[in-house]
Structures are given as C-alpha cells and as structure tokens.
C-alpha cells in the first residue's frame, strides 16, 4: 500500500477567520483564536485547516481584497502569530492551507496606487486599463460578479480599470510576466514559512480575452432572481484556455516544496471542473468540486452525480467533495437538520477529499440578518435575491453562553438563535449529537483505507435511497442513505456488520431504512478494486 498523502487521504476543514474564535475581544476572530482551537480540530479528526484570507486588507470584501500579499492584517494578528499557528498546527499533525487571491488585489495595494497614478507608471500594465468607448462609457459590456459594470472610470488618467468583483478589487493583468512572477514569489514567501498549500480564489477568472470582446447574453437569465452578472455568459472573462498555463505554473511553484497542495476554486460545469487537473495532471491537485452544493437533494440525482463525476475524472486525478463554504447557504439550512446527518455520512464516505465548513459539524444554520446589519457587499449591491453571504458567516458557537464562547466582545455578525443546543460544548459528550456523528465518521474514515482511498461503486438507487460501496484490498463498506423523511425500502439487500447509523443503533439485517437514516455496514469480505 502506498504512503499516506495528507491531502488525498485526509479531510480539510475551512475556517472563516473572522468568525472562528476571537482571542482579543474585538468581536472579530483572529489567529490567536484559531491557534487556541487547534486541539479541537485535531481531536475532531480533520487533517488540514484552510483559512480564508488574513492578509492586510481594507476588508471591502472581508479579506478578498488584499493590500499586501506578504503580511497579516492587524485585525487578525501579525506574522509571528501566523508562524506560531503553523508551528502549533504542525505539532498536532494538522496542515495549514492559506487562501490565495490572484485575480485581483485591493485598490489600496501599493501596486494599484502606483498603477493609477499615471498612464506612464511602471505599474500601469499590472492592471487592466482601457480607454472609454467612443460614447465615453465603459470599454465593453462586461459585468462585475457583484453587480454593475466591471469597469470603473478613473478621471485623473481618463481610463477605465477592470474589476470582476468590487471596484475596490481591481483585476491584475496576468498577461504581464512581471505580475506573474510577483505573485509566484508571494506564494513562495508563505511556502517557505511552512504553509502546506493554497486554495486559490476564482482561479478560472485570471485570464480575460486579449481583445476585450463583449460577452454574449445569457438566454436563461432570470431577472430579479439571478445575480446581475448572469445576464451574460462569461465566455470572455472565465475559463479561457490560457488559464491552464497559469494553473500549471502555480502547481510548479507549490511543487518546489515537498508535500504541498494546490486547490482551485472553480465554479464551472463538471466537464470544465475536471479540466483543471491539467491534461497530464500538471494542474490543481484538487479542483474544488461544488456539485453537491447546487444539487437537488435526491437519492437518484446524487447517485447519478457521483457516477458522472467519477466517469469524468482524468486517470490519476483524485476527487474531492464540498458541502458548503463561506459563499453558499449552509447545508443544515438547505436540507434541514435530519438530512444534515445524512449529508455528513455522504460527505465523509464518498471517494475524494472532503472539505468541511466550520460549524456544519454542529449543525449551524444560516442566520437571518436584518438589512440594517448587512455587512456583505454582494447583498448590499443586489438586495433581496438571497445572494448575501452574511447568514453563513456567523460566529462559531463554542459554549452555551453570551458570546457563545466566540467572543467576550460584541460579535461582528449576530450569533443567531438556538445557541443553547447548537454549540460544541453541549454536543461534545452527547451520544446522539451531530458533532458525535461527525467524530465517528472522521474516525472511521481515518481508520479504514477502504473509506479514505478505496474505490467506489454506486450499487443501486430508488426514489428515496442511495446505496454505494467503498472497498480496497483491506476491506469493504456499504453505505445506504435515505434522502426522504419516511421509512424506505432498501433497493438492494445488504449484508454485513452495522458500524454506524445516524440513529445510533439498528438491526444490521433490516431491509428498510428509517426516515432520514444513513447507515454504514462493514461487508464480510475484502476485495481489491479490480475484483467484481
Ligand atoms: C470567491 C470567494 O470565495 C468570495 O468570498 C469572494 O468574494 C470572491 N471570490 C472574490 O474574491
């Protein structure tokens, strides 16, 4: 059996740093706070934490507007705090993945300040500047992902600059080799400090059409429902063939250091996600697979999804699965509390590196935010469409008390209700809690290579139940998931010892699953992936 590879055999846990743990009492999470919770993460049984951006930032997009790629924002601590966090994490066997934001910087980054100073600036070509259209308007029709034109006019120099997100997030010019090298060096800066890899923000956006052609209209656009950017098909602003070269170059940088990982954030259809492994696997180790996030929560659909994804993977490409993140509604709000338990079993028994989102292990819900308290610029720009991301970014609940053990100050976003039950401390020793279920699943996955890196075969499906098998030459597990809230017949008869049920106990021989039940059975015989 080959050696354990942490990012393949392990589980990634996303920490949204503003909301994880606040050590200094200012109501916003920080690095010291995260450091204090490393033993929680280690005992939970995850292998790596990915921390959303903590670089210096004006926080227009809460850290996704970086004003220095080699520092730490004072809000979160300082570089020594990051060094200490990496040191302690490694001491506990945890890897640390940083977010890297290459598509755009902050408009307050010295590079952009210099770039906008004059048309003759040595940094002018670090960003994407264009003359106005003949009518004085923006150079083309491109739209910002956060609403409105993707171009902002800069009166002193008489040109527009491009921003696929906020006007405070000008896009860097990745066709400029000097920009590329500066960014690769920033990556090396962190890799040298011991960071174990990067989750690269909107990696598929870094290249734009060299001719700045208009994007075509999207015939499926639903006004009032979809984000305004979806008026167009982003054919000239996303997933250009040239992006692949950048991904491969980033991978080479990461591979200059042993045992690191490159993860790409990619919101594209399945056939395009898998293209980001690279033709010869020279691309991202893990192009994020977000298919579960938008999927109808139905047995047949999810069974089909697993098969389609598995079939689309390039040979040797390792899969991954994500249930939620800081940009999407939480799983417990999407599918309900009972199905959140089924979702936990699904995520942690699929073939592929799972990424968990902080708080999902205790069943945190989206928290409704009154408009006056909205912090997310996406919600402010496009109110009422349900696009705002504050609800899924509320503080982690550690204890059933004021501030939820997250802060002794005033939390930057409301904690929400049900803190008395939805918190780590209350669920810690509760045998039926979601946290206990997550711990059991993480332990099981860690213990058995059949679950962490074995093969997968979808065995059968009916309207309610999906059954698949995970196996290698050390063992075999059958997973049965009831996506409905009724008792449901098993589509195939299962044999084996019941090692886990979302109900705690159960009859291994049962031919039906209880409402919202998921089960893992250990099959009597092991077999190798080739044997059927
Ligand atoms: C994707 C990030 O996940 C999101 O939070 C951010 O707003 C955009 N990229 C822009 O950086």
Automatic annotation (TrEMBL):
Pfam families: Alpha-amylase (PF00128)
Listed InterPro entries: GH, GH13_cat_dom, Glyco_hydro_b, O16G_dom_2
An individual GO BP term: oligosaccharide catabolic process
Keywords of this entry: Glycosidase, Hydrolase
Matching SUPFAM superfamilies: (Trans)glycosidases (SSF51445), Glycosyl hydrolase domain (SSF51011)
Record flagged with keyword rRNA-binding: no
Glycosyl hydrolase family 13 catalytic domain ranges (all copies): 14-393
Record GO terms (molecular function): alpha-amylase activity
Highest taxon, organism lineage: Bacteria
Record family assignment: Belongs to the glycosyl hydrolase 13 family.
Name of the featured protein: DUF3459 domain-containing protein
Gene source species: Luteibacter pinisoli
């Amino acid at each position: 059996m080959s050696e354990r590879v942490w990012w393949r055999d392990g589980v990634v846990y996303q920490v949204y740093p503003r909301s994880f743990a606040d050590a200094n009492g200012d109501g916003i999470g920080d690095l010291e706070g995260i450091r204090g919770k490393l033993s929680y993460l280690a005992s939970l049984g995850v292998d790596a934490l990915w921390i959303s951006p903590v670089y210096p930032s004006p926080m227009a997009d809460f850290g996704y507007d970086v004003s220095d790629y080699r520092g730490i924002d004072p809000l979160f601590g300082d570089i020594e705090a990051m060094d200490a966090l990496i040191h302690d994490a490694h001491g506990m066997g945890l890897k640390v993945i940083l977010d890297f934001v290459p598509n755009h910087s902050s408009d307050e980054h010295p590079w952009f300040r210099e770039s906008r100073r004059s048309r003759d600036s040595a940094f002018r070509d670090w960003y994407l500047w264009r003359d106005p259209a003949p009518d004085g308007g923006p150079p083309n029709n491109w739209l910002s992902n956060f609403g409105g034109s993707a171009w902002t006019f800069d009166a002193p120099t008489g040109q527009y600059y491009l921003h696929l997100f906020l006007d405070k997030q000008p896009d860097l010019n990745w066709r400029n080799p000097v920009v590329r090298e500066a960014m690769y060096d920033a990556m090396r800066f962190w890799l040298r400090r011991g960071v174990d890899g990067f989750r690269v923000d909107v990696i598929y956006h870094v290249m734009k059409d060299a001719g700045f052609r208009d994007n075509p209209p999207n015939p499926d656009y639903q006004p009032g429902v979809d984000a305004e950017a979806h008026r167009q098909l982003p054919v000239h602003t996303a997933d250009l063939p040239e992006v692949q070269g950048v991904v491969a170059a980033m991978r080479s940088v990461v591979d200059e250091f042993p045992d690191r990982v490159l993860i790409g954030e990619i919101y594209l259809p399945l056939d395009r996600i898998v293209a980001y492994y690279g033709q010869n696997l020279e691309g991202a180790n893990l192009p994020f697979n977000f298919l579960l996030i938008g999927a109808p929560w139905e047995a047949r659909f999810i069974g089909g999804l697993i098969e389609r994804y598995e079939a689309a993977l390039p040979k040797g490409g390792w899969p991954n699965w994500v249930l939620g993140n800081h940009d999407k509604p939480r799983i417990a709000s999407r599918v309900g509390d009972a199905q959140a338990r089924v979702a936990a079993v699904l995520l942690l028994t699929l073939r592929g590196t799972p990424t968990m989102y902080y708080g999902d292990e205790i069943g945190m819900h989206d928290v409704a935010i009154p408009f006056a308290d909205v912090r997310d610029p996406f919600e402010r720009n496009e109110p009422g469409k349900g696009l705002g991301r504050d609800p899924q970014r509320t503080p982690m609940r550690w204890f059933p008390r004021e501030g939820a053990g997250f802060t002794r100050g005033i939390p930057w976003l409301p904690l929400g209700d049900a803190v008395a039950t939805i918190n780590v401390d209350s669920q810690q020793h509760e045998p039926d809690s979601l946290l206990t279920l997550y711990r059991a699943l993480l332990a099981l996955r860690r213990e058995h290579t059949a679950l962490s890196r074995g093969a997968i075969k979808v065995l059968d499906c009916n309207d309610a139940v999906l059954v698949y098998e995970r196996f290698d030459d050390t063992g075999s597990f059958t997973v049965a998931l009831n996506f409905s809230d009724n008792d449901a017949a098993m589509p195939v008869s299962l044999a084996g010892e019941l090692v886990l049920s979302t109900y705690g106990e159960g009859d291994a021989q049962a031919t039906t699953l209880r409402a919202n039940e998921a089960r893992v059975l250990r099959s009597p015989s092991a077999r190798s992936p080739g044997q059927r």
